[in-house]
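To illustrate the input format used throughout this study, we show a single complete record. The first block contains the structure-token representation of the backbone; no residue identities are included at this stage. The design step must infer an amino acid for every position from geometry alone.
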């Protein structure tokens, strides 16, 4: 079996021209890296971010990376109503709006709050609502856009950081 360096590198990402990716949490970390590389390879990227200022800063980085178009949809992934509204907005934005298809959904938005207990507006624990429920709901709402697209993918990004939290209450 080849080692990781031989098995994968960003240089092996094929041309993504004509493909559209939706990436939650695309304003930093893994989400920003994925959005940047996909745009560099020609994909149209729709960033789903909570903070407009951080999204604008990340968008400048992604725009500079390559030819793929970049759009931003603002949403708090811990709030089901915002996730549904974001899905409706995504359906009308950029290449998705023009073609009615989505090739890649990367559910990357996440947080870890080891301090005080926090809840969303429905009383759901904030980590759970953001890291799990929000991504599931977005994938469900966007399903008609990727269900019949050959090669479409949904990628769920996770973390082991929750292992450092003693109590979610």
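Output of the design step:
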């Amino acid at each position: 079996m080849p080692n990781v360096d031989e098995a994968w590198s960003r240089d092996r990402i094929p041309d993504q021209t004509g493909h559209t990716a939706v990436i939650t949490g695309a304003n930093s970390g893994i989400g920003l890296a994925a959005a940047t590389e996909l745009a560099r390879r020609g994909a149209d990227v729709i960033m789903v971010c909570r903070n407009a200022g951080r999204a604008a800063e990340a968008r400048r980085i992604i725009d500079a990376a390559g030819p793929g178009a970049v759009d931003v949809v603002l949403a708090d992934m811990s709030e089901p109503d915002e996730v549904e509204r974001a899905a409706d907005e995504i359906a009308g934005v950029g290449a998705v709006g023009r073609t009615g298809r989505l090739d890649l959904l990367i559910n990357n938005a996440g947080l870890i709050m080891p301090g005080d207990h926090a809840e969303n507006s429905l009383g759901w624990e904030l980590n759970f609502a953001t890291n799990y429920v929000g991504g599931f709901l977005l994938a469900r709402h966007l399903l008609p856009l990727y269900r019949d697209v050959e090669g479409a993918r949904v990628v769920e990004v996770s973390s082991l950081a929750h292992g450092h939290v003693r109590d979610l209450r």
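Structural context for interpreting the output: The longest strand covers residues 44-49. The chain has a mean pLDDT of 90.
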